[in-house]
Amino acid sequence: MTPPLSYLEFHLVFTLPPIALLGWLAVRRDRAWWNREALSGFAILVALAVVYTTPWTNALIPEGVWWYGDGAVLATVWHTPVEEYLFFVLQTMLTAFWLFHLLDVAELPLRIPTSHRVVGVLAGAAICLAGWLLLGTTSTFYLGAILVWAGPVLAIQWGFGLTYLVRVRRRLFLAIAVPTLYLWLADWVAISLGIWMISETHTIGVGVAGLPLEEMLFFLVTNVFIVQGIVLYVWVLDRLDAPVTVQHVQRVVDRLLSRSTDG
Length: 263
Known about the structure:
Strand content: 5-15%
Order of helices and strands: HHEEEHHHHEEEHH
Shape: globular
Number of helices: 8
Number of strands: 6
Helix content: 55-70%
Oligomer: single chain
Largest sheet: 2 strands, antiparallel
Number of domains: 1
Distance between the termini: 81 Å
Strand order of the largest sheet: 1-4
């Protein structure tokens, strides 16, 4: 059955308009973080999203985890429709442009406790391990694939900047929650219209109003990747550009004096 909207028309209705609106507002609003640092972080994340997601998607589609309605896509590259590759870029744009309205940099040095880094890496590794175990059962295959795919990225981000992410957690939550809720709605519409279908065999059968839990988790973790990636990137650039203040010099002098006294 041919869906009433093609995948490309889905983008024209659900992804491009909010991107255009958020981008226009970011350019016009003085408080929006629309500068070289934020945009360069966005460009890097787009490249990473395409490179990292492409093999994962092309591994799951042949397994029958999801498929597309008759005539819904223009063409495929490997096993993935060109509109899906476009989605990698457009979702990053949507979430990043929303984040630019909220982005700010907290005062925190790049040097964070080693214990925090260890906790972050172990948390990401635990997610990956849980996903690996779930891959062995057909009904949990999609859930496991998401967790295996998400774990390494989360381990890197949390291992590098868990302390900072906790410091800005309120802003982080808002930056992630709004685009995630919107994409859940858009995904639900696409599934309802038959633009793409999710396998009942490869999912656990839990969802909200017909939207599978796995789809909800996918859009959540991808938005976490995007928001945390840009937030950490901007934090690093801000710290590298931070001027040396009298307080910084005084702290260094105090440490040197303390060591010489102890010696």
